[in-house]
Amino acid sequence: MEIIDGVPLIEIRIENPLLSSAFPESGSVLALIDTGFEGFAIVPLEVFRNARFDELKLIERNLLMPDRRVVKSAGAFGRIVMTSLNTYRDGFIETSENVEEVVLGAEFLRGFRITLDYCTASISIEQC
Amino acid sequence: MGTITISLNDEVEKKLREHVRNGGKGALSKVIEQALRLYFSKIEERKAVFRAFKDNEQVAEAENLEELAKILRAKGIDPREVTILSSKPVKPVVMRGWR
Fold this sequence. Notes:
The complex is a heterodimer of chains A (about 130) and B (about 100). By secondary structure, chain A is mainly β. Helix content of chain A is about 10%, strand content about 50%. In chain A, strands 2-4-9-5-8-7 form a 6-stranded mixed beta barrel. A two-stranded antiparallel sheet of chain A has the order 10-11. Chain B has helices at about 10-20, 25-45, 65-75, and strands at about 50-55, 55-60, 85, 95. Chain B is elongated and about 60 Å long. Strand 6 of chain A pairs parallel with strand 4 (about 95) of chain B, so a sheet runs across the interface.
């Protein structure tokens, strides 16, 4: 877990327990923490498909962008595993147009105490 | 009724003692118990329950997706045929970055 170029990043794995699939299949992927995103997790379409979320019945909703545009998203319930803490959270994982990285939002962060140390460019996360 | 010995930060202890100063016997325990009940209820609120519906009928319920998947498998139900809902509803509109 670290802060790179001012961006807090943590290592996670995205799992689809309902279809026994995951992204990546082995190892982990870096996710960006964005407290400006109210949701749980939003991922690129390719990641969403690799984890086979697109095979489940999807829920659609609207994302209110900073420039006031409303963008559609679609998602399903999945699992985010925090590999360094060996813990997980189940929640709504969605995808939308122009999503280029894996982003974890405020809904995911509930239940954690997170410290962003920009002096040492490090992050610590612990459960409440 | 159990008895627990705890250590508190000086500032918290001072506030607690001031708060119960005129409360009489048992006031300290009562405040601690109420605070803990509130704390536990907040933790409980965070727990979600996931429910699976097929043809508008609930077919499974579990506290996590892995358990839900197991129940569906045991019942021979394809997860792709069900609608999964959470006790924490998906908001219809969410902010994707602050203005």
